[in-house]
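Collaborator request, handled under Task 6.
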Amino acid sequence: MSALKLVLWGFLAVLDSVALAFVVGLVNPQEKVKGLWLVVAAACIYVLAFRFYGRWISRRVVELNDQLRVTPAVLLNE
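Structure tokens returned to the collaborator:
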């Protein structure tokens, strides 16, 4: 994983933490929850879950492997 991707995922995780802090009320307990922070928190959670949990499912549960199963296009092209 390149350094730029690592920084991007780290930034997304920090943004999610800040958004969740605003939603839960850790930053300003007296202030009402703004809808934008809720949308940002949900979007960050969905993106992070899709990225990391999806990778885990594809590797551990489904065990996807391009080497084992050859597609019909590759078989007929040979």
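The cover message to the collaborator said: "Helices lie at 3-24, 35-61, 72-77. The chain has one domain: 3-61. Please let us know whether this matches your experimental observations."
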